[in-house]
């Protein structure tokens, strides 16, 4: 429409949920240029992890939201985190990082 009621909004979007992101963590989305249309195509690229990219231990710890649905999640977190004591104020960032990584390893099993 070419009148004052013309509303220009970007409607070319990609939507997914957390379960989908868990299945495809390396997915990338790109809006391409206009081509014979007033819409921009969306390119979804699903990339597999290459062997020379290393394993998940090369990345910083990231809590996965689906873990809270596991029956033993709280038990794993409490038992692993509790094994280091409760004096977090005196722990160095390195120690906390080690605790998080260890907890993440247990949750990922």
UniProtKB/TrEMBL annotation:
GO molecular-function terms, A-Z: endonuclease activity; exonuclease activity
Keyword Amino-acid biosynthesis: no
Top-rank taxon, per record: Eukaryota
Record flagged with keyword Hydrolase: yes
Signal sequence range: none
Family matches, as InterPro entries: Endo/exonu/phosph_ase_sf (IPR036691)
Keywords recorded for this protein, A-Z: Endonuclease, Exonuclease, Hydrolase, Nuclease
SUPFAM superfamilies cross-referenced by the UniProt entry: DNase I-like
PANTHER family registered for this protein in UniProt: BNAC02G09200D PROTEIN (PTHR33710), DUF4283 DOMAIN PROTEIN (PTHR33710:SF62)
Protein's name according to its UniProt entry: Endonuclease/exonuclease/phosphatase
């Amino acid at each position: 429409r070419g009148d004052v009621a013309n509303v220009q909004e970007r409607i070319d979007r990609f939507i997914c949920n957390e379960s989908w992101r868990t299945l495809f963590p390396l997915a990338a989305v790109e809006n391409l240029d206009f081509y014979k249309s007033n819409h921009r195509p969306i390119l979804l690229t699903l990339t597999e992890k290459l062997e020379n990219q290393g394993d998940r231990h090369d990345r910083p710890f990231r809590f996965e939201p689906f873990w809270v649905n596991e029956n033993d999640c709280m038990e794993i977190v409490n038992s692993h985190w509790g094994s280091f004591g409760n004096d977090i104020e005196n722990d160095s960032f390195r120690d906390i990082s080690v605790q998080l990584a260890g907890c993440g390893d247990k949750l990922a099993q």
